[in-house]
Amino acid sequence: MPELPEVEVTRMGIEPHIKQHKVTNIIIRNGRLRWPIPEQINELIGQTIEQVGRRAKYLLIESEAGTAILHLGMSGKLCVVPKETEILKHDHVDIEFDNQMILRFNDPRRFGAVLWQSCDEPMHSVLVHLGPEPFDPVFTGDYLYQLSRDKKSSIKQFIMDNKIVVGVGNIYANEALFKAGIHPKRPAGNISKKRYQQLVPIIIETLQRAIEQGGTTLKDFAQADGKPGYFAQELLVYGRKGLPCVNCEQILDEIRLGQRSTVFCKNCQK
DNA sequence: AATGGGGCCTGATAGC
DNA sequence: TGCTATCAGGCCCCAT
User: Quick one: what percent of chain A has pLDDT higher than 70?
Assistant: First the structure.
């Protein structure tokens, strides 16, 4: 399941193949994704890709006319393949380029999205309300502490809230809270400034390390060249329910928070 | 205003 | 064996 590191790894994987190349055609085999793919996506045809950016978990394929906004949802994958490459099940969208390559979007669960942001439109609604990037200097312990005052919801749901900070999904929230020794169920408003100052660098380092390792491959994720990511072997709690804690050997517990699997060590996380 | 839950989807797996 | 039920979960949106 692509979170920020997986999206960033995908961005780095595809950019060299499509940057400064012209879009020659777009083929939509199934446009019924999370939202219908808008007709205006065809404004990208004839455009040269200036760069591939990222905002939160959205990939931004930028041109002079506008930006294609792609989201991988739960099961989406992007790869760059030569024209004539066999079309597989769930290959919903092809963006063809003048170098005879195709950017191909595959998404079994269709929770992903392909949207269009014309250069003369205001910022797309999916991007407007996003909080800061975790690597943005404004994302500090003090920042989290200030926003968390009076918040009754759990710390885990708090750091997974895109209005607070983007890109921290379920896997990395579990991991970061374990490393910080914070119980995932603790109300965000009851956590001290000092602990937020410990937590924030841990979130940043966890995400950075995952990017270096090519992301986390559980079932779905693959890098743009088809290789898996290698961060899964560094996961300390996610997916380890019932196994011993790496610190104290206490058996790890699993609860559900906001309908999401939450694994933690009741001994190490308070 | 803040918070919790539903719904979108398919594939893998568990259970009968 | 082959069916059905359950779970995975990012994110918008609606109800409370």
Answer: 94
Active site residue A260: yes
Is nucleic acid strand B under 7 Å from A21's C-beta? no
Model pLDDT, residue A196 = 95
Tens digit of pLDDT for each residue in A139-179?
999 999 999 998 888 999 999 999 999 989 888 899 999 99
Considering any atom of strand C, list protein residues whose CB lies within 7 Å.
A 1, 3, 34, 56-57, 71, 73-75, 109, 111, 125-126, 160, 162, 169-171, 256, 259-261
Separation in Å: C12 C1' and A162 CA: 12
Torsion sign (Cα): A113, A118, A119, A122: negative
A203 with A176: CB under 8 angstroms?
yes
pTM of the predicted model over 0.85: yes
Closest to A171 measured CA to CA, from A263, A58, A56, A78: A263
Q: Following DSSP, what letter does each residue of A70-138 receive, concatenated?
A: EE-TTT-EEEEEETTPPPPTTEEEEEEETTSEEEEEE-TT---EEEEEETTSPPPHHHHT----TTSTT
